[in-house]
Structure formats: C-alpha cells, structure tokens
Design a protein that fits this description.
GO molecular function, one term: dihydroorotate dehydrogenase (quinone) activity
Structural class: alpha/beta
Number of helices: 12
Radius of gyration: 22 Å
Largest sheet: 8 strands, parallel, barrel
Number of strands: 13
Number of domains: 1
Bound molecules: flavin mononucleotide
Order of helices and strands: HHHEEEHEEEHEHEHEHEEHEHEHH
CATH class: Alpha Beta
CATH topology: TIM Barrel
Pathway: Pyrimidine metabolism; UMP biosynthesis via de novo pathway; orotate from (S)-dihydroorotate (quinone route): step 1/1
GO cellular component, one term: mitochondrial inner membrane
Catalytic activity: (S)-dihydroorotate + a quinone = orotate + a quinol
Distance between the termini: 63 Å
Family: Belongs to the dihydroorotate dehydrogenase family. Type 2 subfamily.
Strand order of the largest sheet: 3-4-7-8-9-10-12-13
C-alpha cells in the first residue's frame, strides 16, 4: 500500500472513531447517563478550579444545556410542606443558584423545588478567592463564599420575570441573608420578606452560614426572638403571607436547639418550618482530603449523620407539627428515606449534585420510589417521622 493510501486510511479511521465516540457520548448525554457523567463529564469539570466549575454548572442550567429526563415523578413521591405541594421531595439547596439564574434548568433536571440565595440586600462580592475546596476522598466540600450576591434588586427582577405571564409555576424558595457590613441585620431580613414575599413560595431566614462574621450568633435566644418578631410581623402585613422557614446550623448544642424550638412555637415568633442543616465548622470527624483544614463550612457525606440526628431531635421537640427540610450529605434514596423517617417532609442536596451532576436527581428518586414500595408506604407522607430504624435489605438477604 502506498504511503498516501495508508495516510488516507488512518485519517478515515480516526474520523469514523471520533464521530462514533461523539455520537455515543451525545446519546449518553441526551439519555442522562450516570456513567457518562461519573466517568467523563464530572472528572472533566474537576479539571477546573472548584468555583469556576460551579459557575460553569450554573451557566449550563441557565442556558438549559441539559440532558432530557424521561422519569416521571410517581404519585408516591408527592409530598407537602404546609400548603406547598411538591411533585417530589428532592430540592436543590441554597448556595448553588445564589442569584436566581438557573431556576428553569434546575426544574428540568427533575428537582421538586428550587431554593435560590442566599440573597443580601445590596450586592457584595463575598470573601477572597480561593473560597471553595473539593474534598474528593471524603465526598465533601468546604466553602467560605461569604454571601457573594447580586443583591435584592437584581435577583428580584429575575424572579419577577420568571413569575410574569405564569412562565414558571414550580416551587421557589428564597433564602435571605444579610450584608457583611450591615448595621441593622434585622432590617436586612425584614426588607427581604417584604420584597420577595410576592414572588416566592416560601422564604428562608438564614442565620446559620459560618462565613459571615457574627451571623450564627443570631441563633441566640434573645437575638433570634427579636429577629423573628419583626420578620413575622412583616410577613403578616403582606397581601399573601408566605411560609417562613428558619435554617439552622448543625453545630448548635442540644440546649440551643431546645431553646429555638421553644421560641418558634410562640405566636409572635412562629415560623412555619425548619431547614436542618447548614454546613458545619466541626472537624472532629476523620477527613482524608488535602483541604480538610481549610476554614469554612463543611458539607456532604461527613455531615450526613449529624444533620439526620438533629432533624430527629427537632421533630420530637416540635411534636412533628411543623415541616422540616432535611439537608446534609444526601446522595441516595436511602439517605432521603432516613431523613424522612427522622422527621423531614422533604430534602435538599448540594454536594452530591456537585460531584455527580444531573443524573443523581433521577437516581435518588428512583431509589426512593423503590424503598417506599418495599416498605409498604403509599407516599412520602406516610414515612415522615417514623423513626430511624430502617436498614436496606442486602442483595442476598444475608445481612
Ligand atoms: C458551595 C456552597 C455554597 C453554599 N451557600 C449557601 C448559601 O448561600 N446559603 C445557605 O443557606 N446555604 C448555603 N450552603 C449550604 C447548603 O445549602 C446545604 O445546607 C449544605 O451544603 C448541606 O447540604 P449538602 O451536604 O447536600 O451539600 C452552601 C453549600 C455549599 C457547598
């Protein structure tokens, strides 16, 4: 064979192979294939610095460059938080879509609800970079973003646009924060309630992020009472008051949690739900990754048990009377089921989504559907607060 013929043949082979690979990759992407994301796309994303890949992920959702999802939520996954109906109990946690840019894309992926924020009254850039770290070996993240936010006005305009002409009717929570330099923290939250009430399905008072100096002190009895009295008053003044959720830190002591559960029962401080939990500053668990000593909030697997235990405690302290959104280390149907049995009405994920991408949402929902069936629950609602006793059957029924 002449050398030009050989070259031509090699070129054709390369072209055919790369076209076939591209077609197969495209098909797998279109089909929301877990393996494509776990073995190719997410490792590629990890070549970028963590904050850069977060930005890319938000843009991907914003421009809806997303795989199609065939899975239709079955009735068994329906749940409720007060009068908010959810098609499924898996929401995206605050901090992913801080500025309400990606709501429709996140809905398309299959999330049952989207929480945006934290939003601060005025735009602020947050802490110095780098401020997000992957702890790959621990399935965890440490972040110290420090409420980088486009501010109330810009975020409100985006939500207002989404809500106009009934363009988007999915459930949106707005997570409220305060500016770092604010001299009147209570006003920051009250302003948020007033502005976002009309465009949100629920509002979150976030006093539990570890990256804004002094913020978590707002969980202390008297400070919290003062904050909640004002927030509740403003909410009741809205044409249509919204459910208010209080997001808590997993680092509260038992006594602090008990005090908070007492306060939120009082009429003038009454919130409609709890979100448990934010990230932890606790480092007492064994962590294996290079960045385990970075300052900031730890999320993901190492947080899982701690947040589930706290959900269980809060459920008991509130006699199951208010809904709890369970957050912290959820990455499977079983994790969701455990949080629901501990007392959660719904859950949220962030870190597992950052590691596995869109297919994890359908994976979690399918697993949960299976577990509910196996355990004889008609819906999520039937399993709420039933206690943490469940052990998934092994394949061989041996243990
Ligand atoms: C990078 C990053 C940024 C976050 N930003 C916020 C935030 O702005 N407001 C908030 O309430 N929680 C924020 N969180 C906390 C999450 O909402 C969630 O409570 C926590 O990560 C635990 O869930 P996970 O283990 O599924 O990640 C953030 C978490 C991460 C990882």
């Amino acid at each position: 064979m002449s050398s030009s013929k050989l070259l031509h043949k090699i070129k054709s082979m390369v072209l055919i192979t790369s076209s076939a690979t591209a077609l197969l990759g495209g098909y797998c992407f279109y089909k929301n294939d877990e393996r494509l994301f776990d073995y190719v796309l997410m490792p590629l994303m990890r070549l970028f610095e963590a904050e850069r890949s977060h930005e890319l992920a938000v843009k991907t959702c914003k421009y809806k460059i997303l795989p199609s999802v065939d899975y239709k939520d079955p009735d068994s996954l329906n749940t409720r938080m007060q009068n908010i109906f959810l098609k499924n109990p898996v929401g995206i946690a605050a901090g992913f879509d801080k500025n309400a840019e990606a709501v429709e894309g996140l809905d398309k992926i299959g999330f049952g609800f989207v929480e945006i924020g934290s939003v601060t009254p005025f735009p602020q850039s947050g802490n110095q970079k780098p401020r997000v770290f992957r702890l790959i070996e621990d399935d965890a993240i440490i972040n110290r973003y420090g409420f980088n936010s486009d501010g109330h006005e810009t975020v409100w305009k985006r939500l207002q646009q989404l809500r106009s002409h009934q363009r988007y009717e999915g459930v949106i929570g707005v997570n409220l924060g305060k500016n770092k330099s604010s001299e009147d923290a209570v006003k920051d939250y009250v302003d948020g309630v007033k502005l976002f009430g009309p465009v949100a399905d629920y509002l979150v008072v976030n006093v539990s992020s570890p990256n804004t100096p002094g913020l978590r002190k707002m969980q202390q009895k008297d400070t919290l009472k003062d904050l909640l009295v004002n927030v509740v008053k403003e909410n009741l003044a809205l044409d249509l008051p919204r459910p208010i959720f209080l997001k808590l830190s997993p680092d509260l002591t038992d006594t602090e949690l008990k005090d908070i559960c007492g306060i939120i029962k009082k009429k003038e401080c009454k919130v409609d739900g709890l979100i448990i939990s934010n990230t932890t500053v606790d480092r007492s668990m064994i962590l294996h990754s290079q960045f385990n000593n970075e300052v900031g909030g730890l999320s993901g697997k190492p947080l899982k048990e701690k947040s589930t235990r706290m959900i269980s405690e809060a459920y008991k302290l509130t006699q199951g009377k208010i809904p709890i959104i369970g957050v912290g280390g959820v990455s499977s149907g079983q994790d969701v089921y455990e949080k629901i049995r501990a007392g959660a009405s719904a859950v949220q994920i962030y870190t597992s989504f950052a590691y596995h991408g869109p297919p994890i949402v359908t994976k979690i929902k399918k697993e949960l559907e299976e577990i509910l069936k196996e355990q004889g629950h008609q819906t999520v609602q039937d399993a709420i607060g039933k206690g943490i006793t469940y052990q998934r059957k092994s394949w061989f029924g041996l243990f």
